[in-house]
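Materials and Methods. Structural model of 4-hydroxy-tetrahydrodipicolinate synthase. The 295-residue sequence of 4-hydroxy-tetrahydrodipicolinate synthase from Aeoliella straminimaris was retrieved and submitted for structure prediction as follows.
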Amino acid sequence: MTTKGEAFAGLSVALTTPLKNGEVDYEVFGEQIEFQLAAGTNCLCPVGTTGESPTLSHEVHEQVIAFVVEKAAGRAKVMPGTGSNSTAEALRLTKFAEKVGADAALQVAPYYNKPTQKGFYEHFKVLAEETGIPQCIYNIPGRTAKNIEPDTIVRLAELENIALVKEATGSLDQASQVIAATNLTVLSGDDSLTLPLMAVGARGVVSVVGNLVPGDMLQLVAAANAGDYEKARQWHYKLFGLCRDMLGLATNPIPVKSAMQMLGRDSGEMLLPMTPLEESEMASLRQTLVGYGLL
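The predicted structure was written out as tokens:
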């Protein structure tokens, strides 16, 4: 069955935002984008949680979206994070992304204010009906404090511009319900669950470790999409240690930015309240990267 967001199947990478003295380092950012394009990444996802959207100003948020769209220049899809716990703010950011040429918008579930299921529906309905680009519902209750229930997503799937779900509930049952009942393209929102989710019908991943090893994650996704689960399992287990031992060290994006610093691809700088890893954690991270063959 062809899904509504089929053009976004494959590997999307949740880009980090490189910083220098508290400002976006656009030179390094351009290098990171070229690295992804050279690897064959299907879609770039700037200014999500991995891109430190909660601590970037609205002005910088917009500047980053425009920069990534311009640098990608049609060589990959661009699906920036434009979500908010304010529907009006999410709509403003999404309209801006559409205006500068983004291909879709990644909409995190409204967080902290914990809407009812009706509130979720009305929030995403406004974004779908008042903009002209596909919307990806990002369901991550571990961060937002509230789950978008499968029945709500099934209702939302009836709206033309609701096309994708970034599935980060950790529940294979929930993902299965959504995939069985809708024609939405479901993407894994957890690197380590990419293969299990693809086994039940997800079509790819919005990846954090893809900042480091996009080629390896592409191999996993391609093998799973081809039905070669023996090869997909090999890539799953190769990547699993990196996902577990790196991303489990601290809150995202602290570990991945630290890893990119070790690899000479980022300053490692973050905006408060994100803080660097402790020395013992850095030592553990270095060991993980050495074990993977990155150092």
